[in-house]
């Protein structure tokens, strides 16, 4: 294990080494290392005066700014640990988190203004590597958020002498992730503990174009994007202004191979890294440096970072055979202490490590993620033990289907969820593309890549996938999004009969993006238009070798009449 350190001691080393270098620049000002140190020291004394003692939980409710960086450092200098609040969180969840963490003090802009006059003279305690640095709340599968208590040593293991992410004093990082999300740990302490520069993004939400402009203007060299944001930036063609990046790290959810391959083409001099890991093991557990196009298959999550171990185990905690899927357990210096005020959950998820004969016994964290080790040693994420869907008795990994959909040249992004339809569980696929694809096309594409039981029943085109605040796809919202039903029409619903009618009904339903179409329904009443009508005649020609003149379609805009024309055509041949 490389040197265990505290955040405050590692920062002090940089202040001594390069006092005049720029430490942080934000829309509201710029500070050198010496200035940041002095301002944080002053505020730390004032926080001590307000009763902050070692291990005290201090909530920080500030927008992204120089003040935010000064305050987080001040809380640590005062011996406390910070709990960054998410400004977008509902009031109810915020109250729950403050109560759960036993927060005695909330730092707001008003409090900073009020303490500005107080003398900051109280002596500051020395933290130790095991002192808690921050508490990060993650949404639990139970629905109640759980507070992960992360020690100083875990942050040091993430950013000091990390082989997969070497940080140099001439690097420039961007603080972009919400502070409540643990990607911000890397963004904030990565530069400040290595003598580099931290650029603070403005407090408002940034578009892909804003991020591109900021990266270009500030000369950012290391950028961390959540998977959802990475996909948006690539899809919006916003990588052009980012060619100065040394490292582009993406992660937090499964990466689409198509987007990764496009990013590799557009950023030839950038090291693209897929970062994987739960908050409980401090931002990264494993990383994969992409060297060439992924093509088919998954983007690996790579190898454990320095100071971390990974084991793939079965439900009896035995190592799985080489190449087989197992649940991922992780240990080493990055592990959190456990969950705030929840010894039972801590004991259930953090187990004694049976593999490492560490003095005092190490621990392993049970991630709930399923992975396998490839022949080249890289780990491949296969899904969650709790995200596996059971459909008609089969165990289904949604991201396996998503990855297969994304290999289609016209699909930019995809998500697959389980839905209830007529009392049955079905798979529903949502995809992002320029034009609506037909179910027949999508099924044919998937049939070559996944087993039959993994082919979704319904497909819906979206302009973009809905994201949660953490940047992950909002699957609950998708599960509640169903195909629109048949609108009120001048005709009653009549189900399709023969093969022609069934094929046409499915084709119309796909193109019109509605649940079901009756054979007597008028195409234009259903919302069809001339471009779509042309598309249908092209599909008929491709399938049956029959040219239907657009004028004939306008005269007979129902499935029954079209099918009749096809049948008549077959009889005349």
UniProtKB/TrEMBL annotation:
Pfam families referenced in this protein's UniProt entry, alphabetically: AMP-binding, AMP-binding_C, PP-binding
UniProt name for this protein: Carrier domain-containing protein
Keywords for the protein's UniProt record, in alphabetical order: Phosphopantetheine, Phosphoprotein
Keyword Cell wall biogenesis/degradation: no
Transmembrane segments: none
SMART domains in the cross-refs: PKS_PP, PKS_PP_betabranch
UniProt cross-references to CDD domains, sorted A to Z: A_NRPS_Srf_like (cd12117)
NCBIfam families from the UniProt entry: AA-adenyl-dom
Residue ranges constituting the Carrier domain according to the UniProt record: 495-570
Keyword set includes Cytoplasm: no
């Amino acid at each position: 294990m490389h040197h265990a350190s505290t955040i405050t001691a590692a920062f002090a080393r940089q202040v001594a080494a390069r006092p005049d270098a720029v430490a942080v620049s934000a829309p509201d000002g710029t500070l050198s290392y010496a200035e940041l140190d002095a301002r944080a020291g002053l505020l730390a004394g004032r926080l001590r005066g307000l009763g902050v003692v070692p291990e005290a939980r201090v909530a920080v409710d500030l927008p992204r700014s120089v003040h935010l960086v000064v305050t987080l450092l001040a809380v640590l200098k005062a011996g406390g640990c910070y709990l960054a609040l998410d400004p977008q969180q509902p009031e109810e969840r915020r109250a729950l988190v403050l109560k759960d963490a036993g927060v005695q003090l909330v730092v707001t802009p008003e409090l900073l203004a009020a303490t500005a006059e107080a003398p900051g003279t109280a002596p500051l305690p020395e933290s130790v590597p095991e002192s808690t640095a921050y508490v990060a709340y993650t949404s639990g599968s139970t629905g109640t958020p759980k507070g992960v208590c992360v020690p100083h040593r875990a942050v040091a293991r993430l950013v000091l002498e990390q082989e997969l992410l070497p940080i140099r004093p001439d690097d420039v990082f961007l603080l972009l992730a919400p502070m409540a999300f643990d990607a911000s740990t890397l963004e904030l302490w990565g530069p400040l503990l290595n003598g580099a520069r931290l650029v603070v993004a403005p407090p408002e939400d940034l578009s892909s174009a804003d991020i591109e402009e900021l990266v270009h203007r500030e000369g950012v060299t290391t950028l961390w994007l959540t998977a959802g944001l990475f996909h948006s930036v690539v899809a919006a063609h916003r990588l052009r202004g980012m060619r100065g990046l040394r490292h582009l790290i993406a992660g937090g959810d499964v990466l689409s191979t198509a987007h990764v391959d496009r990013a590799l083409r557009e950023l030839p001099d950038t090291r693209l890294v897929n970062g994987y890991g739960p908050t409980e093991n401090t931002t990264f557990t494993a990383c994969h440096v992409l060297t060439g196009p992924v093509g088919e298959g998954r983007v690996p999550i790579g190898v454990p970072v320095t100071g971390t171990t990974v084991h793939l185990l079965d439900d009896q905690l035995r190592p799985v055979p080489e190449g087989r899927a197992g649940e991922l357990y992780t240990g080493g210096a990055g592990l959190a202490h456990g969950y705030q005020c929840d010894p039972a959950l801590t004991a259930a998820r953090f187990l004694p490590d049976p593999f490492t004969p560490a003095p005092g016994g190490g621990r392993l964290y049970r991630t709930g993620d399923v992975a396998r080790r490839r022949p080249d040693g890289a780990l491949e994420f296969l899904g969650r033990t709790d995200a596996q869907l059971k459909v008609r008795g089969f165990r289904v990994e949604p991201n396996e289907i998503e990855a297969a959909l994304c290999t289609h040249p016209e699909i930019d992004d995809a998500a697959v969820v389980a839905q209830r339809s007529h009392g049955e569980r079905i798979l529903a696929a949502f995809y992002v593309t320029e034009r609506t694809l037909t179910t027949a096309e999508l099924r044919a594409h998937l049939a070559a890549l996944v087993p039959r039981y993994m082919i979704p029943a319904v497909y819906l085109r979206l302009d973009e996938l809905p994201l949660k605040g953490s940047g992950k796809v909002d699957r609950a919202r998708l599960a509640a999004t169903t195909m629109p039903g048949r609108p009120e029409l001048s005709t009653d619903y009549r189900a399709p009969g023969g093969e022609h009618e069934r094929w046409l009904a499915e084709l119309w339903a796909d193109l019109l993006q509605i649940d079901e179409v009756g054979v007597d329904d008028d195409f234009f009443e259903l919302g069809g238009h001339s471009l779509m009508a042309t598309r249908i005649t092209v599909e008929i020609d491709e399938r049956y070798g029959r040219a239907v003149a657009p004028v004939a379609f306008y005269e007979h805009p129902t499935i029954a009449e079209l099918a009749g024309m096809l049948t008549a055509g077959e009889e005349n041949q």
